[in-house]
Amino acid sequence: MNPAEMLRIVDSVHRDKSIDKELVFQAIETALVTAAKKHYGELADVQIMIDRETGVMSGTHDGTVLDPEEISGRIGAQTAKQVIIQKIREAERDQLLGEYGEQVGTLINGVVTRSEGGATIVSLGTLEAILPRSEQIPGESHHPNERVRAIIFEVKPAGSRVKVVLSRTKPVFVQRLFEQEIPEIADGVIMVNAIAREPAHRSKVAVSSSDARVDCVGACVGVRGNRIKNIVDELAGERIDIVRWSDDAETLIRAALQPAEVDQVLLCDMIGRAIVLVREDQLSLAIGRKGQNVRLASKLCGWDIEIMTNEELEEQIDRAVTGFSQIEGMTEELAQKLVEQGYLSYDDLSVIEPDALMEMGSLTEEQVDVITNQAEVLALEAEKAAAVEKVRKKQEDAAEAAQAVKDAKDAATAAASPTPPPAPAATPPGSESGEEPPPSAAT
Prior knowledge:
The protein is an alpha+beta fold. The protein folds into four domains: 3-99, 2-Layer Sandwich (N Utilization Substance Protein A, Chain:P, domain 4), CATH 3.30.1480.10; 103-167, CATH 2.40.50.140; 170-245, GMP Synthetase, Chain A, domain 3 (2-Layer Sandwich); 312-388, DNA polymerase, domain 1 (Orthogonal Bundle). The protein is built from 16 helices and 14 strands. Strands 6-5-4-7-8 form a five-stranded antiparallel beta sheet. Strands 1-2-3 form a three-stranded antiparallel beta sheet. It has a three-stranded mixed beta sheet with strand order 9-10-11, sandwiched between helices. Strand 12 (264-268) and strand 13 (273-277) form a beta hairpin. Helix 5 (171-181) packs antiparallel against helix 8 and helix 15 (354-361) crosses helix 16. The longest helix is centred in the last third of the chain and has 52 residues, at 365-416. The chain is elongated and about 105 Å long. Mean pLDDT is 85; it is low at 430-443.
C-alpha cells in the first residue's frame, strides 16, 4: 500500500462513514501492529506510525527500524486488511454511538421499512432503529413507507453495530410534541412542568408561563383547539388534560383533578398524602374510570391522593382512633395526633419513622418498637381479612351473575313456548238443539 493509496483510503472512509480521519489512522496503525505480531510473535515490541500528511509508514521491531515495504507487504497484508476492516467498523460503531447517544430523549422522524415479530423497524437514514411493541401506543399499527415520529429512548452497542430503541409511550414523547407544535414552549415563554401519562388513554400536562400576558393553557389549546388537536391526532386520539401549574400543592391538586369539583384538600406532609374531600355527586368523576383520573393526578403532583367524602373521612378517623387506641403503649391523645397527620391505617403506622413517633408521643425507642411491631402484625391481619372479603365478594358477584343468566334463560324459554288454545266457552242448556234458553228467575 503506497502513501497515496493510504491517504485515499483514509479520505474515502472519512467521507463515506463520517468517521474522523484520526480514528481511521489509529485503526490502520493498530491493524498493522496486530498483523506484525502474528509475523514476529505476540511478545515482540512492534510500533508502527503513519504520517498524517504524506501517508508514509514507519515502524520498529524490538528497536530495529522496519522497511516501509516490509510493513505493507511481508507482515501479512491479508491479516492487516481484515483487522483494518474490523477496526473501521468499530470506529463507525463508536461514531454512531456518540452521535445517537447525544440524541436520547429527542424527537426524530423516520420511515417504517418492515415489521419483525411485533416490532417495527424504522429507517433513520444512517441506520435502522427498532420500535418495540411495548413502546408503541396500544392499538396503533405501522405500515411500510409510513413516516413515524418517536423519541430515541435507548442507544447501546450490539457487537459491531449500534442498537437504537425508539419509543412512543414515554411521557417525554408528549413533551416533545408540545415543543414542536407550540412555539411559545420552543421559545421558553411557556414551560412544561410535569407530565403524567397512560398511553392510548389519557395524559395530564402541567404548564406555566413566564409572561403574565400569555395564557399558558389557552396557548397550548390554540384557536378552536387546533394546536392540541394535532397532538391528539399524533397520539391516536389520546385524551389530554392541560393543567395550570402552581407551586402551591393544594392549588395544583385541585387543578389536576379537574373536571371534578373539590371541596377541600388536606395535606399530610409526613407521609406525602393528600386527602381530597368531594361531594357525593363528584366522587366518581374525581376518581375517574378505573381510578385513572386520581392516579394520573397523583403522578402529576407527586402526592398520594385519596378521594373521599366528608362522611367517609369521619368514619376512617373514628375507626383509626379506635384501632390505634387498642395498641399497647398508645394513648388516645397520641392516636388523635397520628390521625391528624394522615395516618389512617395499621399499614401507615407500621412504616412511620421511629424518630417522628418518639417526638409526637414523647416515647422511648423501646416503646416505639413495641407499637410499630404490633402495627405490623395488625396490618398483616387486616390484609388477610381484606383478601378473604375480596374472594367472598367475588364469589357472591359470580353467583349473582350466574343466577341472572339462569333467570334470563328461563324467561327466554317461557317466551318461546307455544301458547295453549283458549278453553271453549260453556254452552248454555238447550243451545245444542237450537232451543231458546229458559228464562232466568230475574226475568
